[in-house]
Design goal:
Shape: globular
Distance between the termini: 18 Å
CATH architecture: 3-Layer(aba) Sandwich
Protein name: Helicase ATP-binding domain-containing protein
GO molecular function, one term: ATP binding
Helix content: 25-40%
Strand order of the largest sheet: 2-3-1-4-5
Strand content: 5-15%
Order of helices and strands: HEHEHEHEHHEH
Number of domains: 1
Number of strands: 5
InterPro entries: DEAD/DEAH_box_helicase_dom, DEAD_box_RNA_helicase, Helicase_ATP-bd, P-loop_NTPase
Organism: Hevea brasiliensis
Keywords: ATP-binding, Helicase, Hydrolase, Nucleotide-binding
Length: 172
């Protein structure tokens, strides 16, 4: 938990590093959920920049983009999916063999906004489709009670890392 603009997205770096070090098992290995299309696009740009010297493939699943293009991207077996919850749920319902069981890392970016915008039910459904052997990361500026309850109910041994207003995350 840290204020907006403190560098939380940089914390994706260790996940990307681990993904590129391990051979792919086949299937999606990381899922990053964003509350809005704009944030998902920013995350895609940042992720592609960080991973430009790797073979990691990334797909973006957001409303407003062509479903057909997204189906084609998914057919390329991306390592990372960056999505809004609604569009991800739409793909899960449309693509019979789409599975999230291979996901090693799931990130709830701006988790307070995800809950504040009414995605709680979809997030719970997405969690049920993931493997138990995953690392789950929630990045948030605040910790509303609904998010705290979600963490207690849906995660094993959650740990809170909280930065005060003056703290910035160190660059890697």
């Amino acid at each position: 938990m840290a204020r907006t603009g403190s560098g939380k997205t940089q914390r994706f770096c260790p996940m990307l590093e681990r993904l590129k070090q391990h051979l792919p098992q086949g299937g999606v290995r990381a899922l990053i959920l964003s509350p809005t299309r704009d944030l998902a696009l920013q995350t895609l740009k940042f992720t592609k920049e960080l991973g430009r010297f790797t073979d990691l493939r990334t797909s973006l699943l957001v409303g407003g983009d062509s479903m057909e293009n997204q189906f084609e991207e998914l057919a390329q077996n991306p390592d990372i999916i960056i999505a809004t919850p609604g569009r991800l749920m739409h793909h899960l319902s449309e693509v019979e063999d789409m599975s999230l069981r291979t996901v090693e890392y799931v990130v709830f970016d701006e988790a307070d906004s995800l809950f504040g915008m009414g995605f709680a039910e979809q997030l719970h459904k997405i969690l049920t489709q993931l493997s138990e052997n995953r690392q789950t990361l929630l990045f948030s500026a605040t910790l509303p009670s609904a998010l705290a309850e979600f963490a207690k109910a849906g995660l094993r041994d959650p740990q809170l890392v909280r930065l005060d207003l003056e703290t910035k995350l160190a660059l890697i």
